[in-house]
Amino acid sequence: MGEPTVRKRQLGGELRRRREAVGLKLDDVAARVGMPASKISRIEQARIDVKPDDLDALLDLYNVDEPATRDVLHAIARHGNVRGWWQTYRDIISPAYADLISLEADAKSMRTYQSTLIPGLLQTAAYARATLEATSMTATSAEVDALVEVRMARQSALSRREPLELWAVIHEAALRPRVRSHPQMMKEQLQWLLDKQSLPHVSIQVLPLDAPPHVGMSGRFAVLSFPETADLDVVYLENLTSALYVEDPAEVSRYGSAFERLRAAALPFDESADLIEQLKEQIK
Predict the structure, then answer these.
(1) I need a surface site. Which of 7, 35, 78, 142 has the fewest CB within 10 A?
(2) pLDDT tens digits, one per residue of 242-281
(3) Residue 60 pLDDT > 60, yes or no?
């Protein structure tokens, strides 16, 4: 079995919390539902899938009576077996990246702060290629081509029937062209941001260079929220060689508060658009 997905871990964690809330140990549950304690433990650790009947038995025992909550947990359980378009690229994308794409496909909203790059969901193909060539140090030309395809395909989250609500705070440093040999690429990227900002479900703010010290100085992050409950929100952190998901509700809440501080420190929407336009016009 491969590495468990974020959503599977969320389901397992929620079942563990529900069990502990009613004061039951694994052996107690096993005796009540006729399921080996080892199996219940593996479900909670996201090492195996949970069948619908088994999930119902556990939820009944844990006094989870709300139909909406039960529907959500069943939907997450089913999600573990769904194969998305990104599986075609499993040879070149990491499990963590595949998880991100899957989460974007399910999420209601994403709040992201970026300090040095344009968010992936707002990149043009040319900009994506330039950044991937610079950061994917071991990728071949063919692999970069495929990674660009993946990044472009991810953007379908913004055009689906119920589109992802994207709120991006971008540091001004990420918007200033630093590739003098490709001025047109950056000009088109900035225009692309302006075009996307006109969408009702996309909000873009710029954190100016002269902003006072702020929480974003610790690095970029993204908070993904889901329709069901804030307890299942997740934070995505990424660096050069790895990615990390923050799933503990208390820690996720801290990142949500951090984003609110960054949003408050950033320029209003109109001023942000004006600055992007000015930077675009400065490119010759």
Answers:
(1) 142
(2) 788 888 889 999 999 999 999 999 999 999 999 999 999 9
(3) yes
The predicted structure's pLDDT at residue 1: 42
Query: Is pLDDT at 167 greater than 80 in this prediction?
Result: yes
Rg value, the chain, Cα: 21
- The mean predicted confidence, pLDDT, of the chain is 88
Q: Are 215 and 207 in contact (CB under 8 A)?
A: no
Q: Is 184 exposed, middle or buried (0-12, 13-18, 19+ CB in 10 A)?
A: exposed
Torsion of CA 75, 80, 81, 84, to 10 degrees: 100
Judge contact between 189 and 137, C-beta under 8 A: no
Which strand ranges, in their side-by-side order, compose the sheet holding 243-246? 202-207, 165-171, 109-114, 221-225, 234-238, 243-246
Query: Which runs of consecutive H residues, i.e. helices, occur in 116-207?
Result: 125-135, 141-154, 183-197
Give CA–CA dist 153/163, Å, rounded: 14
Instruction: Provide the angle, in degrees to the nearest 10, between the axes of the packed helices 26-33 and 37-44.
Output: 120
Residue with more model confidence, 96 or 137: 96
Q: Which domains does the chain have, with CATH numbers?
A: 6-79 (1.10.260.40), 88-282 (3.30.870)
DSSP letter assigned to residue 200: T
Model confidence at 197, pLDDT cuts 50, 70, 90, reads: very high
Rounded CA separation 195/191 (Å): 6
Between the alpha carbon of residue 209 and those of residues 212, 255, 262, the distances in Å are: 9, 22, 13
Q: Residue 127 and residue 120: Cα distance in Å, rounded?
A: 10
Beta strands in the chain (DSSP E): 109-114, 165-171, 202-207, 221-225, 234-238, 243-246
Q: How far is CA 102 from CA 5, 7, 99, in A?
A: 9, 9, 5
